[in-house]
Amino acid sequence: MEKNILQNWEKLSEEHQKQYKQFLQRANKNAVLKQLPDLHEEATKEIDCLKCANCCKRYSPRFKVPDIKRISKYLRMKEGALIEQYLYLDKEGDYVLKSKPCPFLGSDNYCSIYDVRPSDCSRFPYTDEDVLLKRPAITLKNTSFCPITFYVMEKLLLTMK
Asked: Which range of residues forms the domain containing residue 142?
């Protein structure tokens, strides 16, 4: 993909939301799933997450019980203290961050809890798994702030026509 397309990716993503939605509704799921590993790898070679970190700046992962246990142990905090200091229950009943950007994100865009980060973080942006198709609302949202998701969706639109 041309570099100049990535330079305007946020604007293009906004303009292409309807196309993405239609694609996700109509796509041949098996054909898409076959392409995702290669497209994900291509996108992650093209785009440096550490230069972006939009996911950590604009979004909160869910902190599931195993995540909370693992992170609190790593930080040498009681689980309740971790929850009280950093998290709240959202309307879906998930623990999410109280503040943005993520309090574990450094000024260099490195994560201070990277080795024990929530599973949502380690799986993000879901461009190499079926979440891309199974949860289209999340995919659409992710294209608006994640250049990797944008890249994969653009490539899918081009190759699946």
From this structure: 3-56+124-159
Please list the residues that pair with 95 across neighbouring strands. 63, 89
What does pTM read for this prediction?
A: 0.90
Number of domains in the chain: 2
Rounded-to-10 torsion of CA 30, 31, 33, 36: 180
Residue 159 has what pLDDT? 87
Query: What letter would DSSP give residue 138?
Result: H
- DSSP character string of 69-133: HHHHHHHT--HHHHHHHHEEE-TTS-EEESSSS-TTB-TTS-BTTGGG--HHHHHTT-TTSTHHH
Averaged pLDDT, 85-102: 97
